[in-house]
Every structure is written in C-alpha cells, then in structure tokens.
Amino acid sequence: IDTTIFSDAREASKVVANEIAGLIRARNQIGQNTVLGLATGSTPIQVYGELVRLHREEGLSFERVVTFNLDEYYPIRPEELQSYVRFMNEYLFDHIDIKKENVHIPDGTLEREDVYKYCKEYEQKIEQVGGLDVQILGIGRTGHIGFNEPGSLEKTRTRLVTLDELTRADAAASFFGEEHVPRRAITMGVGTILKAKKIYLMAWGESKASIIQRSVEGEISAQVPATFLQKHENTKVILDEAAASELT
Ligand code: F6R
C-alpha cells in the first residue's frame, strides 16, 4: 500500500488538495463532472481549507463537481451543531461555487422505515454519475472508515449501522457528553468505498499511530475495516510523522 509520510498535516493536506484540484481542472477543461467522496471530522479540514483557497485565489471552479459524503449520524437534524451537513457547509460548501443539487449527504432525519430504500437510492445516485473518482478518508481509532465499525464486511453497502463505544467516546466532547452522541449512523459501506477509482486515507497525530500500523501492515480482516484498503490498487495513505511512528 502506497504510503507517504509528511513532516506535518498542513503540508500533506496541500498535496492532497492539489491532486484533487488537478483532477477537477482537467475534467472542467473537457466539460466533464468530477465525483468526490468526502469525509468529515478533524482530519480533512485543512484539505477543505486549501480547496477553498484555490477557489478564491486561483479560480478553481466546483460547478461541475458532484459530492457524496461518507456518512451522517442517525438521527440528527441538519441544523444541529454536530451534523455533518453543518460541518460541510462551514468548512467547504458555503465558500465555493458548488451547485446545491450536486451535494449529497446521508439524511439523518428519515423515518426508520424509509432508511433502507434511501440507502439503496444513495448507491444508485453514485452509480448514475459514473462512480466516485476520488474518496477521501480519515480513520477512527476502531479502524473504521466511514462509520464501518469492526465487523463490517468487505461487500457492505450504504446502510444504517451502530456506532462502536470507542467511536461514541471519541465524539463525546463535541456532543457535550457521551449520552448525547447518537447510537447509530448512516454510512457508505466498505464495498462502496472500495469502488472509488482513487482513495486517500489520511491520518494525523500519535493517537492514530497504532491503528494506522494495524491497518497498513496488519492482516486483512473485518475486525479492522481499514485493512480492506490493502486490496484497493489505487489507495494512497497520507500520514504525518506522528501517525506513521509505529510503522515498521
Ligand atoms: C467522518 C468519518 C470518520 C472519520 C474518523 C476520524 O466522515 O467517516 O471515519 O474520518 O472518525 O475522525 P477524525 O478525523 O475527527 O479523527
């Protein structure tokens, strides 16, 4: 698995943003869409910051960009502080020229009985636009990608999942207490992610060092869903020195 270690997250994030921008520009030039799979959380924030800068200062246009976010808590309302709709607007969408109709984030407000059909349609929408050109990923300390927690199989698709206790503990601060963290989420599956033509898995900081070592060097297993990325021929693992510190 192709792994690059940078001296810091900012430098690494610029490289990822520039590669994405290069693809968007090439597609814009021939009048074609770029389909991006996006992540939330602290990891991609500087990538989004750099994309916003490229839009403002260097004329990068997102008019032909279509996005699909990996996941959303369930249930959650879009206006809640911790919703991924709010996150994406704040860090990216409010600052670029993307068309509202081209943005897709799993809906945390669905009635329980509507979720199954909705997830199927989310998959169909990705396929209808030609599949994900690029998927960017962070990694949870459980080894989750998206919210595919330990036990998630390679062929899983978009679905309602139960969050791991460690994931809920890691989210407790942003929800002002673990008891306020939703127990479930809607997430793209491992299989959905693996269909992306190109994947960037990013991780920063020593808290990710152990799970990065297991994901990159460990045996492929549903117990660490990120290990399935070892099977994807076009994945780049992008790390800062601290996150890479346990690699052998
Ligand atoms: C977020 C997502 C999660 C996060 C992961 C790491 O959309 O899918 O897998 O990428 O939990 O979160 P941070 O970046 O906050 O450490």
TrEMBL record:
MF term (GO), any: glucosamine-6-phosphate deaminase activity
Domain Glucosamine/galactosamine-6-phosphate isomerase: 8-234
Active site positions, chain numbering: D71, H144, E149
Family, per entry: Belongs to the glucosamine/galactosamine-6-phosphate isomerase family. NagB subfamily.
The name this protein goes by in its record: Glucosamine-6-phosphate deaminase
Coiled coil: none
Role summary: Catalyzes the reversible isomerization-deamination of glucosamine 6-phosphate (GlcN6P) to form fructose 6-phosphate (Fru6P) and ammonium ion.
Keywords: Carbohydrate metabolism, Hydrolase
Record flagged with keyword Hydrolase: yes
GO biological process: carbohydrate metabolic process; N-acetylglucosamine catabolic process; N-acetylneuraminate catabolic process
